[in-house]
Here is the input.
Amino acid sequence: MNEPIFKEESYKIIGCCLEVHNELGPGFLEIVYKDALEIEFQLSNIPHSREKLYDVFYKGKPTNRKYNADFVIYDKIILEVKAFKRLSDDNLLQTLNYLKVTKLKLGILANFGESSFNSKRVLF
Here is the structure.
């Protein structure tokens, strides 16, 4: 059986997410969770970029659209933050599209809106 991609890094990211969810619980806006995550990443010495801007290309040409990744962690993992009552297939597709744009291999879709923290690994 193959080892999951970026297992150790994913474990640390999910640990930070769990810490934020345990501290705040559900019910806040996404921006509050992002602010708290940024603090938690700093406290945990996890290298990250927030709202990193990427161009979207079509056939090698830039479109008029840009993508702001919620977080790029360790320069190799996208963290997409949500605060919904339940994740949907659209959320998974959005994260997959972000991986296509960034050319990164792993995304973590983190939902803080449920009573228990929920996350999904999305591979490209």
